[in-house]
Design a protein that fits this description.
This is Permease. This protein is mainly α. It has one domain: Na+/H+ antiporter like fold (Up-down Bundle). The protein contains 17 helices and no strands. It starts with a helix and ends in a 25-residue tail after the last helix.
Length: 379
Amino acid sequence: MTSAITKTISLLLLILIGYLFRKKIAGKDQREGIKTLILSLALPATILIALLQIDFESDLIIIPVMSLGFNIIMHLLMDRLPLQPIFNIPVNQYRTLIMLIPSLAPGLSCFPFIMEYSGQGPLAMAALADVGNKIFVLIISYTIAMKWYYEVNRENAPGGKTKIKDLLMAMVNEPVNIVIVVAIVMLSLGLNYKAFPEALTLSIDRLSIMMTPLILLFIGLSIRLTWDQVRTIFSFLFFRSGIAFGLSGLVLLFFPVTDIPTILLMIVFPQSACSFWPYAHMAAVGQIENKLPGEKRIRTFDQDFAMNVLACSMPFSVILIMIIYASGDVFAKTTPVFMCSGLFLLAAAGIVLFSSKLLSVYKADPIEMPEIGAEKQAS
């Protein structure tokens, strides 16, 4: 068993451990405490390290631009196609999908396999591509989330200058946004992560190390899957993957590459799992909504549903990436890539036929996925 597969199994086990510990950490306040640790400490520390370690070269700008292009194209498809009425999904859950489906989390689902099968060179290119993805998930996604919040809560939304002031205050109050501003200022001054004192960098490093296990455990703790939701989520994951294969095939057609590791990188990177960072923005919006009077509170997003999407996305992407790399040079030509695109889109359409408006996709009293060795229990 390769080290990449071993690492991936260990990550999936953390989700399983979180799922099995749901009854031990059943209280909402307990889960909120874990979420606060992630959003206020571990995630900002990780973002600061990632941004301040960017070694950007102007002649390589095409790489993050292409990655950002994938995010934007996927967002536009999700936002413009009439998928919400086809699936009869509540609007707040569809907004959640629009936030998550275009995002990428290559660090958890893709980088280990790139390193194992292709080495440092393609991994460095993947890290550079992730710069474009970070611009989308950290900045653009946050702007979209706040825009939807003000659209949904029009009665409570301020106008004009007050609205801009409140938006700026919400951004300042988020540790993630503060970290981004600090990193941008430091990079503009020619400073990097080594500019911090060693004692401070050690503390930030330790906070960052907590992020991955905390996020995966939190996903496991938050899973409230129903079989109908699994079917619907996976249809969108197949749709996302099919579009990703198609875009990779087009890039390979217009920018012919002969190096197989680079070809595989261009195929597997867009297949990365959905990112946790859009969830952070949805959680920030949820905290603002919690301050509203109960009778005026309208939820912009469904955070529980977001956790379910993240829980399904990671194993889906990991298995797919493993298959691509295990196939050797099968994907060295564009024909198999376009064939996979068509097959995955057909799979997504096939699931749509079984999840049409005639079926109650989201039931009022959902049945949770059974635990190992246990009976199905009502949520």
